[in-house]
Amino acid sequence: MSEKASGVTATERLLAEFCERSFLKLWSYPNPHKDDGHELCDLLAVFGDTVFIFFDRENTLPDIPDKDPQVLWDRWKRNVIDRQVKTAHGADRYIRSGRPIFLDAKREKPFPIPFDKDTVLTAVDSRTNPASTAGTAQHDLDLVNG
């Protein structure tokens, strides 16, 4: 079996640990890389004919009492959720292109599981502030998937 990364940030490590303790243990790989050496996503899992792309972002909505909450929310959503959705679309395009995926930034360890590049499901989890999942999370996930 190929050596797996453990995640870079605390939330990436939690995601990797979750997969290691679940049925995804044999099919999940934290922090895979593209052919340019940049990270593709936080975790890539292949189960049967389906590829799951996971992203986990931790970024809190600022609490600034003298600022309009709607302005703060709009700015936070644009800088955190919208930017991550764009990143997720890029990872999805990369995988569907059939370009190689590696387990390391040096591109010495190829991704060990073959898969159908046309069966990709992307998930973005912004676990930061209760407001981040109230009302926009499902919409944003729908945008990523479709």
What's the total count of β strands?
4
Number of helical runs? 4
> Secondary-structure element sequence?
HEEEHEHH
What fraction, in percent, of the residue positions are helical? Answer: 25-40%
Report the C-alpha radius of gyration, rounded: 16 Å
Described by strand count, sense and barrel closure, the largest sheet is: 4 strands, mixed
Structural class: alpha+beta
Mean residue pLDDT: 77
What is the spatial order of strands in the main beta sheet?
1-2-3-4
Describe the oligomeric state of these chains in a short phrase.
single chain
Describe this structure in words.
- This protein is of the alpha+beta class.
- 36% of the residues lie in helices and 16% in strands.
- The protein has a four-stranded mixed beta sheet, with helices on both faces.
- Helix 2 runs parallel beside helix 4 (137-145).
- It starts with 9 loop residues before the first helix and ends with a helix.
